């Protein structure tokens, strides 16, 4: 048996506890009035039945849905913290025109890797303050390319320091589930980042992921001299749907993230930390490559074979919903409430005439 709640479990619990608390309070207040005790007891039972119906208990039938085997699973893990907006990827900007950022380089490299490994299955994970699986594992490479093309840095106001191990727990869960479902499948992982650790916590090693992957690369972005980073409010005013709108010539220069550590604010500069990136690569048992706009991703994908993917439509079993069983007594109790309320209204009419 499983459940398929109509709302998050925590929300159902909060609403259920609030309703239950109200009914219990009424029971205590009216404990000497037998009729009201019966009514409020039935209402408490109705709350319990509603909660059971809301979590939708379900029995899954025997069978197996669509599945895929063989081929290659590719996990793309992208750092989207503010440091990835550093303008030291390629060239220099001036005035209102920003220089290419590290994230621009990541997008170009993802496009190249996906095309080099055409035919594989891909998943896209990003991380800043939290890690998120943007695209679950799919053989639709266009979905991954589309999602990667619109990646943006985190909102500057919400930045609380970056940690290079932020995606570790999420990746552990994803890879563990994938290995359990298809233990013979081959998997590779590409980590895109600059290695900058501004969080005070010591980053955790990536060794725990090594048993689940058979290749990939850690790709480093940035320079030793570093680059300044534009502030982000979460909205790219130049981007509307699929059309790129030219920036007006009278647009003021972009504002950059400030560093207040020295008292007087100055433009913050982010530099690459190759030592940290190499430690990630070492823990995963894959290669590290420092990226630049002048080189290709061919080295990172060398020796990775996509192979053939075999799909099975499967034969899903029937699903049996059980909520209706609890809806029957709920309906009877609701009918009891209607009768009781009708009786109370009928009792009020003679009282009104007498007054």
UniProtKB/TrEMBL annotation:
Taking every annotated instance into account, which residue ranges of this chain make up the domain VWFA? 73-204
SMART domains, A to Z: VWA
Per the UniProt record, one Pfam family is: VWA_2
Instruction: Tell me yes or no: is Transmembrane helix among this UniProt entry's keywords.
Output: yes
Q: Where are the transmembrane segments?
A: 6-29, 36-55, 322-346
Locate the coiled-coil region(s) and give their ranges.
none
Q: Which UniProt keywords apply?
A: Membrane, Transmembrane, Transmembrane helix
Protein name in UniProt: Ca-activated chloride channel family protein
Q: Which organism is it from?
A: Salinibacterium xinjiangense
